[in-house]
Design goal:
11 strands; 11% strand; 3 domains; 583 residues; 46% helix; alpha+beta
């Protein structure tokens, strides 16, 4: 029966590449992109155009704007080349926004997706955006000359009233396009850098690791405080600058927690397990991209160019990047990344952006109040090294004899109702109780829906089709037929190994035909055991990263099942019980 163990691979089991010593000459020059047409228009706008047949007739469009203050906006559209009207409307929408227009009738909501480092009215970003800060990207199954003419006709005549500057605005306070909650951004952006050699690429990856470690730590802390952490857009493979979305009553307190956590990172750094978790995930994703680089979908290539434009990698070959990175990333060490964490978290590199909802009721923080908060927290962190506090004090800090992880500190602070720093703007100087700050009582009509994190988990159309193919074939073919299709099934399985297991299961049980096929698979112990082995392995991997429970609410909602039941099976690590429940 051993030949049929390949079905585990055809399911969702991960293929994590083994770490190996790099054979790359770090002084070797990196190949430049030769498949894409990259040029600047007369007004400074950069255009990227590449013909790509995957998927057939598919088009991936991205328009990226980045200001000198590290704010950025992404507009994206994935469609068919047959949808010329939709493509023209998308370009028109982006062009009007580049002029500073915010008229809603210009932007078709079902096609246009605004993705920002923070969400605000476009005028605030575009007032600091020059032509050199704008890129238009088109990748797909089309005529490059026709697409280039369309882009140049739409964006070539744009007139920019400002010049690109290096003026930095480290603290910004304004309004948000989000309907509820205060968006709190504490960002440490990676400086743009041109990649010429493999040594440059290695240096870039160490900066990326530092950024990813920071983003994950801030996300865990925010969730420990029972607030939302928002990923503005799905990640390519690079970390996304997320932000905390807090209620108006808790926003100043949550901001103080975020600033305090960063000070603790400066003092204690990250631990090696955090580093290894990031390295394993990056290595796996790169392994998947490298194996499929010859048939990469247009949306992934477009996302790569968009990120490259913002980070200085705009002229780097996609295939060269993923293959070289696949070899470099497993060779990085924790010791090599540490100095990059210290460099990233320099005070001069800190940007604090706060966006209140347009209908906000609370008084906004001021720049001077935030500066005072930063100064107090920084001073308290320095004082902490020599100080000792009892557990019932207003602050729960590390002591030389009792060091706690930052994640554990956040949990203890929440559980004991401690408050690191409360900035009180009322007439009374009495500090509010932490539990009141973190969980204010609000009227039922003021309660706002939580962000559906499950829907942010990426899954492409082709990945959905691949999953459907695997489940259908496992259900309809007998084990002898499957044995003959072993190679084909294995290749299909490898293409969706990276899909989050809840996304994988969610797609299956959201379709009546696939759900019916699962019942057929259940009747064969060989098929069922192979399927469950794959699912269990991926669920264990994501559970070890605390990367399951946060998606339960959206997962359960999408399938119309009880979230408490799903949580029960996950906490029990009863993966088979979960699948049986969904059947």
């Amino acid at each position: 029966m051993l030949p049929f163990l390949f079905l585990m691979t055809a399911g969702v089991c991960a293929l994590v590449p083994m770490a190996k010593a790099s054979s790359i000459d770090l002084m070797q020059q990196l190949p430049k992109e030769d498949k894409a047409q990259i040029r600047k228009l007369s007004n400074g706008v950069t255009i990227f155009i590449q013909e790509n047949p995957f998927p057939a007739s598919g088009v991936a469009l991205r328009v990226v704007m980045q200001s000198a203050t590290h704010e950025s906006a992404f507009f994206s559209l994935d469609t068919s080349i047959d949808n010329m009207k939709g493509i023209e409307e998308f370009f028109l929408s982006c062009r009007e926004n580049c002029k500073g227009s915010t008229r809603p009738e210009i932007a078709p909501k079902e096609e246009r997706r605004l993705i920002c480092g923070f969400h605000s009215t476009m005028d605030s970003l575009l007032s600091r955006c020059a032509g050199e800060n704008l890129a238009v990207i088109a990748v797909g199954d089309f005529s490059a000359n026709v697409m280039e003419a369309m882009i140049e006709n739409c964006f070539g005549a744009l007139n920019f009233q400002v010049e690109a500057t290096d003026v930095k605005m480290p603290i910004q306070i304004g309004l948000s396009s989000l309907p509820s909650g205060v968006a709190l951004h504490v960002d440490y952006p990676i400086e743009r850098s041109t990649l010429n050699t493999y040594e440059d690429l290695k240096e870039s990856w160490m900066h990326i690791f530092a950024q990813d470690l920071l983003q994950q730590r801030l996300e865990r802390l925010t969730r420990a405080l029972r607030e939302n952490w928002v990923h503005p857009h799905p990640r390519f493979i690079f970390p996304v600058h997320g932000f905390a979305l807090a209620s108006e009553g808790t926003s100043s307190n949550v901001l103080s927690f975020l600033l305090w956590e960063i000070e603790q990172i400066k003092l204690d750094g990250f631990n090696e397990n955090e580093f290894l978790s990031v390295q394993d995930r990056m290595a796996y994703q790169l392994h998947h991209l490298a194996r499929n680089s010859s048939s990469t979908e247009s949306s992934k290539i477009a996302a790569f160019y968009a990120d490259g434009f913002c980070s200085g990698r705009e002229h780097l070959s996609y295939e060269s990047f993923v293959h070289a990175s696949e070899e470099l990333v497993p060779t990085l060490t924790f010791a090599e990344v540490k100095p990059h964490v210290r460099k990233l978290l320099g005070d001069a590199n800190r940007f604090i952006h706060i966006r209140y909802p347009e209908t906000h009721k609370s008084r906004q923080l001021t720049t001077s109040e935030i500066e005072e908060m930063v100064e107090k927290i920084s001073g308290l962190a320095e004082f902490e090294v020599d100080a000792y506090y009892e557990e019932d004090d207003i602050m729960l800090l590390d002591t030389p004899s009792s060091k706690l992880s930052s994640h554990r500190k956040g949990k203890m602070l929440r559980e004991q109702g401690a408050c690191i720093l409360k900035i009180n703007h009322s007439d009374s100087q009495e500090p509010a109780a932490a539990e009141e700050v973190l969980q204010p009582e609000v009227a039922a009509e003021d309660v706002q829906p939580e962000v559906d994190l499950f829907q942010t988990l990426p899954i492409s159309h082709s990945e959905r089709e691949t999953i459907s193919f695997i489940i259908t074939n496992m259900a309809e073919k007998n084990i002898f037929e499957l044995a003959f299709d072993k190679k084909k099934m294995e290749e299909k399985g490898k293409r969706i190994n990276h899909v989050h297991p809840l996304r994988f299961i969610g797609h299956i049980f959201s379709r009546h035909d696939l759900k019916k096929n699962m019942k057929r698979i259940k009747k064969s112990s060989f098929k069922w055991d192979a399927f469950m082995d794959g699912v269990a392995r991926r669920m264990k991997e994501e559970n070890s990263k605390n990367n399951l429970l946060m998606y339960v609410s959206g997962f359960a909602k999408s399938l119309g099942v009880n979230p408490d039941k799903v949580t029960y099976y996950i906490q029990k690590k009863d993966w088979e019980g979960l699948v049986r429940y969904l059947m």
